[in-house]
Amino acid sequence: MFSMFKRVKTLMSSELNAALDKAEDPVKMLEQFMRDMETDIREAETAVAKQISNEKMLKKKWDDASAMVTKRQDQAVKALEADNDDLARRALQDKKDHETKAETLKESYERAKTDADTLRSKLDEMKEEYRQMQLKKDSLKARAESAKTKTKINRAMSDIGGDDSRRGFDRMEEKVLQYEAEAETSEDMRSSSRSLDDELDSLDKNNGIDDELSELKKKMGKE
């Protein structure tokens, strides 16, 4: 189980690089890798729980066998006190059988405890590695999202300054210049027309003054 977890962890980097090369979504793949690790940890926890249960069961059997050794020893003493050698002999024989059983159970228990301790340690390592990979995943996820955002912004900025946009702005600029030229032309025409009217009006005014001046001269005998 632990070796499987190691393989998943090892694949995480290589598969992520492959995903990036194939333009796959690294965030989704990272989430899948983490789910795989979580599955491995749950399976490892089940294996550890079974081993601990086996360890406790062997410990109880060893304790029971050891207790029987003590019990049969005490019973043999009582049988001798009662002058019952046969009963004492049978108690001692059963005591010996339980001693052999207890010794075997002790060895089995010690192996089971060693295995359980090793599995606990491995499980702790798996959980610590998972925690580290979780932190790395969060960092990679944030970097991926940041890169996506930058790409979108850069593409948007590229579109804003694209050839189509520039050509469109150039056309609009030409139209504005055309409007301004038309406005200046109409202003010149209006000014030209107004100047002519002013000259004609001035001419009319001058003619009236000249007539009045001539009439005044006649009255004064100046002509």
From TrEMBL:
Q: What organism is listed for this UniProt entry?
A: Guptibacillus hwajinpoensis
Region (Disordered): which ranges? 94-120, 134-223
Indicate what this protein is called per its UniProt record: Phage-shock protein
Give the family, as the similarity comment puts it.
Belongs to the PspA/Vipp/IM30 family.
Sequence ranges of Basic and acidic residues compositional bias: 134-148, 163-177, 187-223
Which InterPro entries does the entry link to? PspA_VIPP1
